[in-house]
Amino acid sequence: MKETAHKPLNGKKLALRILLYVVVFLICLLILYPYFAMFCTSLKDRSEIFSASGTVVPKNALWSNFADIWSRAPMAKYMMNSILIAGGSTIIALLCGIPAAYALSRMKFKGDIAFLGFVIVSQMFAPVVLLIGIYKVMMTLNLTNSILGLIFINAAFNQAFTIWLLRGTFMGISSEMEQAAKIDGCNRFEAMIKILLPVAAPGIVTTLIFVFINAWNEYTVALTLISDDLNKPLTVGINIFNGYNMIEWQYLFSASLFAIAPVVVLFAIIEKNLVSGLASGGVKG
Amino acid sequence: MKKIIQKIEPYIWILPSVLLMFVFILIPIVFVFRMALSKVSRAGLIKGFTGFANFSKILSTPTFSMVLKNTLVWTVAVVGLSTLLGFILALLLNNAFKGRKVARAIVVFPWATTLVVQASIWKFIIDTDYGTLNTLLMRLGIIDHAVNWTPSAGAWFAWEIACGIFVTIPFVTFTVLSGLQSIDGSYYEAATVDGANYWQQLFKITIPLVSSSLTVSTVLNIIYVFNSFPIIWNMTKGDPGNRTDTLVTYLYKLAFYNGKQGEAAAVSVIGFMILLVCATVYMVATLRKGDE
User: Fold this and answer.
1) Is the distance from CB of B93 to CB of A1 less than 8 angstroms?
2) Contact between chains at A279 and B179 (C-beta distance less than 8 A)
3) Is the pLDDT of residue B37 over 80?
4) Do A48 and A88 belong together in one domain?
5) End-to-end alpha-carbon separation of chain A, Å?
6) Are residues A51 and A156 in the same domain?
7) Beta strand pairing status for B38-40 and B46-49?
8) Whether A195 and A59 share a structural domain
9) What residues pair up with A254 in beta bridges, in sequence order?
10) DSSP character at residue A9
11) Pick from B27, B139, B265: which is nearest to A132 by CB?
């Protein structure tokens, strides 16, 4: 369990160390394999994919597939929609979540435990089980087939962990500085903006990236609510290449790479903060 | 006057969040319950109270018991195996070794990838005619002709479970890692001095101390896996003949393909009831953890 690198290794320890490297290496290979297969396929010609004697690596890389998808499907529109949905959801989730988390960490009020309880329990209601109800609400508000509708849904379903994570962050920060600021004539709101939020920035950034990733990756609600092709986000839109009769794997996968690359990078950036964030529980994409 | 403002101030702070969740979570919940107890037209119009007619209609079909069994198998298999494998992976990654940072970044990949893409890749990899799994195994000389990896509905379901495990492991691994890193190293030093071997340390120190992290990840995973839609939808759409359906894909088809929204709502409510038990356990566990 403990670090042993500084001590001289005896035979058994050395063997274990080699075994560790081999096992971790094989696991990483297995995890990367689907991405490798996807990347290779995205560079193949259609006939090469369906040929009887299949290839692992493309015979000659067809980089034009990556260019073709932009003309064969409204990829730019999908991309823009994904950015709008993920960005909008993140802004609304934080605008609503920050004051709520602030109240839960800095004030005592009747019903605070009940509110926190509802926040936690709301994680149980995945949008998919509520789709029929959501659809009805969206029809009433005239928000079916609208990007704004998806923004609100994603923001609402991400409130739980936004509040939970931020409440944990705020509670870990002493309120002394804010009280000093209040004596100097700041009101609560100013004290939060000027004193608390800058200190809480790392926790806020982690939360922000997480909501962004969740909203970017959302599929089920968008699939149900959006009927107009030009309003679809990437997760739903790329399936234009996944038809009932014919699947254009090379295009599906080159489009998929565009859909996953931004969030994989974002995720890798916050990977370190994930561990501390997860310690408080309640974070899941 | 000032006192009143002070009294209502916290509620103003939580108001935006409450409004957001009220409109987009609570009202849909109310709608689902109302529809479950009502006669609903194909177009989704509510036409009067029918009591438990939707429930008895659903519960009397043999399809529903099969779907319920599938849901149970799906949830238990995915959560159980990914918890076990994710835990082992966390133990491996908790060692100090060269390249650990890279390995951890790679492990995050399946978690960051949207499920619908993940499902498409696996569907492609295991395809009998042109899948890369067959190509790869033939190249390596392990098999000499293409194997049909999905000869039956059961085989499809097994692959869907495998895909589910693949994407769920990282969450378990990182939750457990967070628990492992908060363990004070002096416990192990003391245990080593006392002559405890690796397994004794694992079962007497590590597992008890990460059990709260494991509880959080397990309960959250039960909820998320139970509700997971994209993998099954993308690979089989619950077919053939509902044999790979879980509750959520089944209710989706009832509501949006077959125009039976009342019955779909009843399935939703049954799903809630099952999850409510899990969520209650989770809430109690989390609030207790928060008080510590």
Assistant:
1) no
2) yes
3) yes
4) no
5) 29
6) no
7) antiparallel
8) no
9) none
10) P
11) B265
Please check whether residue A282 touches B, CB under 8 A: yes
Residues of B in contact with A242 (CB under 8 A): 120
Interface membership of A142 toward B (CB under 8 Å): no
CB of A262 within 8 Å of a chain B CB? The answer is no
> Is B92–A23 a contact, with Cβ atoms under 8 angstroms apart?
yes
Q: Domain for residue A5, yes or no?
A: no
Enter the tokens of residue B148: 């049909």
Question: Which of B122, B174, B223 is facing A278, going by the closest CB pair?
Answer: B174
A198-237 per-residue burial string, b: 16 or more CB within 10 A, e: under 16: ebbeebbebbbbbbbbbbbbbbbbbbbbbeeeebbbbbbb
Cβ of B32 within 8 Å of Cβ of A23? The answer is no
| A179 assigned to some structural domain | yes
Please answer yes or no on whether A51 and B130 come within 8 Å at the CB atom: yes
Instruction: Supply the range of the domain harboring residue A50.
Output: 11-64
**A-chain residues within 8 Å CB-CB of B138?**
54
Find out whether B278 and B284 touch, Cβ atoms under 8 Å: no
Stretch B11-29: mean pLDDT, rounded? Answer: 92
Contact B92 A104 (CB under 8 A): no
Q: Domain count for chain A, please give it.
A: 2
Residues from chain B contacting residue A9 (CB–CB below 8 Å): none
Domains of chain B: 62-291 (1.10.3720.10)
| Cα A248 to the center of its chain, rounded Å | 26
Highest mean pLDDT among A91-100, A194-203, B268-277 belongs to A91-100
Q: Please answer yes or no on whether A117 and B287 come within 8 Å at the CB atom.
A: yes
Distance in angstroms (rounded) separating the CA atoms of residues B212 and A248: 46
User: pLDDT tens-digit profile of A221-231?
Assistant: 999 999 898 99
pLDDT at A129 over 80: yes
The whole-angstrom distance between A48's CA and the closest CA on chain B is 9
Per-residue pLDDT, averaged over A59-82, amounts to: 85
Residues A223, A136: one domain?
Answer: yes
Domain assignment present for residue A2? The answer is no
Task: Report the percent of chain B where pLDDT is more than 70.
Answer: 96
Cβ within 8 Å, pair B106-A28: yes
- Tell me the ipTM for this assembly: 0.84
A281 touches chain B (CB under 8 A): yes
Q: Quote the Cα angle for B191-B174-A223, to 5°.
A: 160
Tell me the C-alpha distance between A111 and B212, whole Å.
27
